[in-house]
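Instructor's aside before we start: the two examples that follow are unrelated to each other. I chose them only because their records fit on one page, so don't look for a connection. First example below.
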Amino acid sequence: MEINKHNTHILLGFEYSAPTTIVEACKLLVEYSDAVVLAGGTDVIVKMKEGSLRPKRVVNIKKIPGITGIMETSDGIWIGALTRIRDIERSKLVQEKILVLYEAVRVIGSVQVRNLATIGGNVCNASPAADSAVALLALDAVAHISGPEGERKVPFSEFFKGPGSTDLARGELLTGITVPSKLVGWKGCWVRVARASMDIATISLAATVKIEDGCVKDIHLAWGAVAPTPMRTRDVEAFIVGKKLDYSVIDEAAKLAAKSIRPRESGRSSGAYKRRVAEGFVREALTRLAEK
C-alpha cells in the first residue's frame, strides 16, 4: 500500500483519503472531480460492494472535527453533518423541540444502520424518499455548505435538484444543518408507508403547524417519494392558513393535496395509488395536529 500527499492511500484500485480539516477535504474534492465522500458509509459501501458505484477516489470525512453534534443557538437548532441518525433519534432537544424530525429519523433502516448513518449522508444522497430530508424541508431547514469560495447557506427548498442531485458544487461539502428558531416548538406530525419494515418510504408526509387562537397561522406540508425531489404542497398550505382545522377544511385540503403531488405514474407504486394515499395522509396528519 502506497501513501502519497493528502494522507492518501492507494489500495484496491481506488485512492482513499482521510482529511482532518474542511479546507483539506474541499481541496481534495476539487482536485478529484470523481471523488466520493464517505461519512457513515451505509449507502456508499453497499453500492461499492454490489458494484453499482466504482469510485476512483474515496474521501473519508470522519476525522474532521466540528461538524458533529446537536446544539441550540441563537439561530435555532444546529445539527452537524456528521451527526449519526441514532444520536438525533435519542436527542432530548430534538424530541422536545423538533418532534417531526425525531419521528422521521427513528424509522430509517434498523438501529444498526442508524448507529452508522449520518444526517449529512442521508440528505446528500438526495433520494426523493429520504426521511430526514422530508422532515427538514417541513422545518424550513438551512444547509451550511463549505467550499473553495468559502461558506454559504442554502434553504432546503432550494437544496435538492433531482434524484441523486443537490446544490453542492464541485469541491463543496455539507457541514451542518440549522432548523430556524421560528420553527422550533411548532407542532409536528409524521406519516409514512413502506412496502415492508425498514424499507424506504413508498410515500411520506411531514407536517408542521403553528396555531394561534384556534386558527392556523402557518403550516408546512412536505412530501417524500411523490416527485423527483422532496417537495412542499404550497397551494394546500395557502388554503389552510387562517382557517380552523375542522372537518370541512381538512376534507378540502386532503382532496387538494391529491391533485398537487407529482408522482411517477409507474414504478414502485402507481401515481393513482400515491394520490389516494396522499389524501388519507392529509386527513390523518391534520386531524392529529388539530387534536394536539
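Example two begins here.
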Amino acid sequence: MVLENYVKLPREKERVMRFRPGSFRVEETTITDPKTKQPKRLRRAVVDVTEEDYRPVVKIFSTLSEKLATQLRQAHETGDLYRYHVGITWHPQELATEYTVRLF
C-alpha cells in the first residue's frame, strides 16, 4: 500500500476537492534546489483536504503558484473555499503553468 498524503493534480484533468474549514495557510519550507544543489527557502499555500473526487480523505493540497495561491486565498477570505466543491485543473506549459479553478 502506498501512502498518499498529498493531492496530486493530473495533466488537463480536473481534481475535485473539499477543504477543512479555516485550514488555508502559507507555510515556509526549505528544499534542495535541483540545479544548484543548495538549500532554498520557499513559501507555499497549503489547505487540508477532506474529500478528493467525492471520496473522504485526509490529505493536504499545496501550491507554489502565486496566481493559484491568490485565488485560493480570496476564496478563503469569503468562505467560498469551504462552502463549495473546488475543481482545480492543471494546464502544464513549457514556460508558464496555468490552473483553472472552479467553485460549485
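The longest strand covers residues 39-52.
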